[in-house]
Each structure stands twice: as C-alpha cells, then as structure tokens.
Amino acid sequence: xxxxxxxxxxxxxxxxxxxxxxxxxxxxxxxxxxxxxxxxxxxxxxxxxxxxxxxxxxxxxxxxxxxxxxxxxxxxxxxxxxxxxxxxxxxxxxxxxxxxxxxxxxxxxxxxxxxxxxxxxxxxxxxxxxxxxxxxxxxxxxxxxxxxxxxxxxxxxxxxxxxxxxxxxxxxxxxxxxxxxxxxxxxxxxxxxxxxxxxxxxxxxxxxxxxxxxxxxxxxxxxxxxxxxxxxxxxxxxxxxxxxxxxxxxxxxxxxxxxxxxxxxxxx
Length: 268
Prior knowledge:
The protein has helices at 2-9, 36-51, 73-84, 95-102, 107-124, 129-134, 137-147, 150-157, 186-191, 194-197, 230-233, and strands spanning 24-29, 57-62, 89-91, 163-165, 168-170, 206-209, 218-219, 223-225, 235-242, 245-252, 260-264. The protein is an alpha/beta fold.
C-alpha cells in the first residue's frame, strides 16, 4: 500500500523539449512583405552567425508572404533566388503569393489583390506611379503578364506548403487541429486563423507559423508565431532552432534610421 502511494505521488517525468534533427541549424524567417531593407540585413546577420558556427548543416526557411504591402516585393524575390543559389533556402507559399498569382486570372481578383498590398507589389516591378494611376483595371490586367514574367510566376508557384523537421512543422498560417498533418488542406495552411490560434491542446508537432501579426514572438507551447509585422512595425524576426535550443535574430528599423540587428533568447 505504501509503495502504491509513493508511486502515486511520484512526479511525472519531464516531457522532452522539442528538437530539430541533430547537426542541423534552422533559421526560420517570418513574413517579409516587401521589406527588402530588413531582409537584406537579415541575410547578412544569418551569414555572419553561420561564419561563427561549428555545425554540419544550416537550413533556412521563409514562411511565406514575401510579397505585398512593403515597397520592394520584386527585390525580395530576387534576393531569395540569389540566396538559394548559395544556401539551402526553402520557401513556403503564403496567402499573399496565392493572391498575387490569382490576380492574373480575372480582373475582379486583381481588384481584390490591389486592395491588400498588391499595388505596392506591381509598382516594385518597375511600373511608375504616374503610369499606374492612368490605367483602368482592365488595362492593368492586360498589361500585368508583360510586367511580371512567366518565369517569375512559375517561381512563385513552386513555393512549398509544409516542411517538417524533427518535432517541428513549418507552415505559413497554421494547421487544422482536427486533421493529421498528412491530411491538411492547402487553404488552411495558407489562410487559417481562429480555429488554429484558439486551439490550446497538443498538436502532432510544434507548429512554427507566420500570417498573424504579434508584437513579439508568440510561443504557446503547441505553436510559435513569428510574424512581427515587418511591413508596418519595422521588425523582421528569424527563429533559430538547433537541437532543443531556441533563440531569435531580429532586424529592426525605426522611421528612416539605420537597420539594426538584435540577437537573444526573446524578441525585442
């Protein structure tokens, strides 16, 4: 009886911290939204971080929404392609990439895209504001394929939906808590919000996501949100995962000041 009571009151074993595969460091970057200034500095900061490292392999994941709202979406995509030529960089599709591609299908979808940051994206491809303002919606729709090449659109269409690494899964918006990972719908991976954010129970893996803006990294145990609203806050966040350790790199710009780099266990 006494032994049974001892077993009853014995503390439960500690749950192991989630891990990424051994020997690999992951840099996971939140929604960039056309902020080439913050992204350029983030690339430099990660390259400098790697230069100080003694690791077998580094993998970089962009969580989607590279485009829209900020001033230089075309520049962000160009820098991403350049980085991919030098590093293992994988890119997830965000809902804004989906809207961008769908804008080539119908004028009414283009109208919706323009209202959600698409105007800035189109201007970043070299169309002057003066010319943009003279074009009717139908005219802009006809001109768009000339402005953004098929090669560029095919590149955006190649972005992935989900990446799994050890005890983590990386997606743009989140997952449907009622479905296993191998049965997720693309629409949820790119667009889900409340059903995912409000879920407090355990998930199949720790979900690292963007899409929903927080003023700091939001670690809820079952998920980690790292979209710190770069296009309006001036703060771009990268979550660094190695073994069972986590840390943060942020590039920050206030008003017209210089872009600064912050390292730490918690976000600025």
